[in-house]
Amino acid sequence: MRKHVLVAVAAITFGTSLVAVSPPANADGPTPDQFIDIRQVPRGTNLVVAGRGSFIAQCGRNQNGHHNPDNFIVAPGVSNGAHHVHDYVGNLSTDGFSTDQSLAAAGTTCRFGDKSAYFWPVLRSITNVNQQQQQQQQQPQQSAQPSQSAQPTVSASASASASASASASAAASDGTGGTGGTGTGSAKSSSASSSDALSQDTGAAQDTGAAADSSADSSASSAAAAAQPASRSATASNRSQATASDEPGGAADGNVGRILLPRSVTLQFRSNRAARVVAMPRFIRIITGDAKSATNGGANARARWTCTGFTDRTTTKYPLCPRGSQVVRILDFPSCWDGQNTDSANHRTHVLFPDAQGRCQSGTKPIPQLRMILTYSVNAGASFAVDSFPEQAHNPITDHGDFTNVMPDRLMTAVVNCLNRGQRC
Q1: Distance (Å, rounded) from C-alpha 36 to C-alpha 9?
Q2: Which of 1-5, 64-68, 143-147, 404-408 is least confident?
């Protein structure tokens, strides 16, 4: 009898320890101090300065669910070379084994036959980090009360059911599961001055891009359904399920939560303020930001976060936006080409950033400057994070983007002419 009692006590104690010590799935980051109310961010953007001309590439929002944890630019020929999941628009075949030839032969979600590959790490909806911190603080108290061991399991189950119901309800009210804002205040702010050049430029680009996305959504989805191999991407219907499994780039690499579909994706090519741009060579590879900047330092970091209605300011932290305002990621790419190479050993030295006045360095030529503007509806509070390498712990400074030009020559010529004439196309 005594033996059976000891076994029962051991089982209860062991069960209690499982509940007490299991950390939240995203316990390695982000942290509460990596979020900031956008209204507390001083004005100023530190973005790339460009000329008046602009061309919008319309490629959709990845509504066909093209995802994988690869990066053929920095880790060619490697499966799960990124250790985080990317959103892709444009080229339908993009994965870790893409080549110039495979890209040229593939279909695209872009208009005008633009087969370029545009990609960036996904944004996920996660457990609110402030609630997570409270749970971690309560765990030592739970482990000190083994007599209540029967309760945590039931409570956790009920909590999971409630969370599932809340998620389902949120998803039903919003295609991305978001609430359309992250605070209780109003998104209308006098700080977003009409005289602010960035606000006007970015706002115009977002408006144009959103309208373009709306008109291009059906055609992009049709093209994807017709041309994209099933093995190259998750379908839209299993997007949330795939993120919950122990898959490479996902939970297996510390990236958990539901992938958020951007509300709008604007791919804007901009002119140079100081000189006429020249055509990009076909198959040029360009990257921006540093996916390992949390450990490498900020030398190559280019993360810029803001909110709609507040684009006169940016931050390297996750922005907490007022109600009615959406989270915005702005990824500016370098645009001063060495005139010879389509890639380099570090994937950076063949294309450099212009100076603070928008001028290219001696010995380089200005090419169309790509700016990606990604907007999201998220749940209230510190409840979203960008995918990252495991050791980067979802630090917002690691945000980055990748691009390979596979435009037809005639389209690139049209883009260059549009920019050099100062037009908006």
Answers
A1: 46
A2: 1-5
Tokens, residue 246: 């122990």
Tell me which H or E stretch contains 294.
Answer: helix 293-296
As to burial, measured by CB atoms within 10 angstroms (0-12 exposed, 13-18 middle, 19+ buried), residue 66 is buried
pLDDT digits (tens, 9 = 90+) for 127-141: 876 676 667 667 655
* Strand ranges (E), 123-186: 123-125
- Residue 55, both tokens: 């061309």
232-281 pLDDT, tens digit per residue, is 433 333 334 344 456 888 999 999 999 999 999 999 999 999 999 999 99
Note the residue count of the chain: 425
Dmax (CA) of the chain: 91
Nearest CA to 33 out of 306, 395, 308, 388 is that of: 395
CA dihedral 109, 424, 48, 287 (to 10 degrees): 20
- Identify the three-state secondary structure at position 152: helix
- CA angle, residues 166, 329, 183, in degrees to nearest 5: 45
Helix/strand/coil for 299: coil
Report the 10 Å Cβ neighbour count for 62. Answer: 27
For the chain, domain boundaries: 29-137+149-420
Q: Are 88 and 110 in contact (CB under 8 A)?
A: no
User: What is residue 419's DSSP assignment?
Assistant: H
Structure tokens at 332: 């500016």
- What is the pLDDT at residue 122? 98
Please, which residues bridge with residue 108 across strands?
A: 91
Whether 27 contacts 296, CB under 8 Å? no
CB–CB of 314/339 below 8 Å? no
Cβ–Cβ < 8 Å for 319, 189: no
| DSSP one-letter code for 88 | E
Global pTM reads: 0.76
Question: Per-residue pLDDT tens for 340-365?
Answer: 999 999 999 999 999 999 999 999 99
User: What is the per-residue burial (b if ≥16 Cβ within 10 Å, else e) of 262-300?
Assistant: bbbbbbbbbbbbebebbbbebbbbbbbbbbbbbeeeeeb
Cα 201 to the chain's mean position, in Å? 21
Task: Give 56-96 as a DSSP string.
Answer: EE-----TT--EES--TTTSTT-TTSSSS-EEEEEBTT-ST
pLDDT band at 167 (very low <50, low <70, confident <90, very high): very low
β partners of residue 123: 386
- For 280, residues 6+ apart whose C-beta sits below 8 A from its C-beta are 337, 367, 368, 405, 407, 412
d(CA 126, CA 388): 14
